[in-house]
């Protein structure tokens, strides 16, 4: 997926309401500069609104950051959970196939991204950045947005992969999320390795079928030998 130009001011032919204009300006600037370095003054200038408008609709910069993620992740995660609900209903309590679980999680993100406008693809790049270099506040927002999805998919994976300990499953899910977020953030490494570019049209349609077997192979690999963890336990 080709990177989306950061500067993409709204066309006067396609007017938008003030909150949407603020949110899209914030997305572009957060991607370009990061969350901490993007000031409210920068956002108001990009959105062509005054500070009072941002305060009226969102109240604070932290609330604006949360709204940026809620607008995109809310519908995506509802779609993921709806897909998992249907699969589990059909399975009638039996473990789901690993491929169907992983596809339910990653499929919606990439299919929606491929069929949507540039804003959705820009947000995918922003999400990749948020996972790779989150601030404390962004980390909390991502946790709150994703906690129900993680809980449900973790339970489904545990049933599908009974040979893995709870700790091993957590590590493998961590690697899965890393692969997904980096893949969504762009194709720079792919271009570096392959020395060619994928067209915008082909990438979203092929990424799921290429990523799915890779993730499943890692998830279902034999359990590693137990070794004491060096990470602090998260409460």
Verbal overview:
This protein is mostly helical and 235 residues long. The protein is 70% helix and 0% strand. The protein has helices spanning 18-33, 40-47, 51-57, 61-91, 98-115, 118-132, 136-160, 166-185, 188-194, 203-219. Helix 5 (98-115) packs across helix 6. The relative contact order is 0.12.
The share of residues in helices is 55-70%
- Strand coverage percent: under 5%
Cα Rg: 19 Å
Order of helices and strands: HHHHHHHHHH
Mean pLDDT: 82
Structural class: mainly alpha
Number of strands: 0
Distance between the termini: 37 Å
Shape estimate: elongated
Low-confidence stretches: 1-14
Biggest sheet statistics: none
Q: What is the secondary structure topology, with strand pairs?
A:
Elements: H1 18-33, H2 40-47, H3 51-57, H4 61-91, H5 98-115, H6 118-132, H7 136-160, H8 166-185, H9 188-194, H10 203-219
Helix pairs in contact: 1-2, 1-4, 1-6, 4-5, 4-7, 5-6, 5-10, 6-8, 8-10
Task: Provide a compact summary of the structure.
The chain is about 70% helix and about 0% strand. It is built from 10 helices and no strands.
């Amino acid at each position: 997926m080709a990177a989306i130009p950061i500067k993409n001011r709204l066309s006067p032919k396609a007017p938008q309401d003030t909150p949407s204009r603020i949110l899209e300006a914030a997305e572009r600037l957060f991607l370009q500069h990061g969350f901490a370095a993007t000031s409210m003054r920068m956002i108001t200038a990009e959105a062509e609104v005054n500070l009072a408008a941002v305060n009226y609709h969102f109240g604070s910069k932290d609330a604006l950051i949360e709204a940026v993620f809620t607008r995109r992740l809310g519908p995506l995660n509802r779609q993921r959970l709806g897909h998992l609900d249907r699969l589990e209903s059909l399975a009638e309590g039996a473990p789901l196939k690993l491929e169907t679980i992983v596809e339910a999680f990653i499929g919606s993100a990439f299919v929606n991204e491929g069929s949507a406008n540039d804003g959705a693809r820009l947000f995918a790049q922003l999400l990749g950045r948020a996972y790779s270099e989150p601030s404390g506040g962004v980390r909390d927002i991502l946790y709150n947005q994703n906690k129900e999805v993680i809980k449900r998919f973790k339970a489904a994976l545990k049933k599908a992969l009974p040979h893995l300990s709870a700790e091993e499953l957590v590590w493998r899910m961590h690697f899965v999320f890393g692969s997904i977020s980096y893949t969504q953030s762009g194709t720079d490494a792919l271009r570096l390795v392959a020395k060619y570019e994928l067209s915008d049209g082909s990438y979203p349609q092929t990424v799921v079928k290429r990523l799915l077997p890779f993730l499943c192979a890692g998830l279902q690999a034999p359990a590693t030998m137990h070794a004491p963890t060096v990470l602090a336990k998260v409460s």
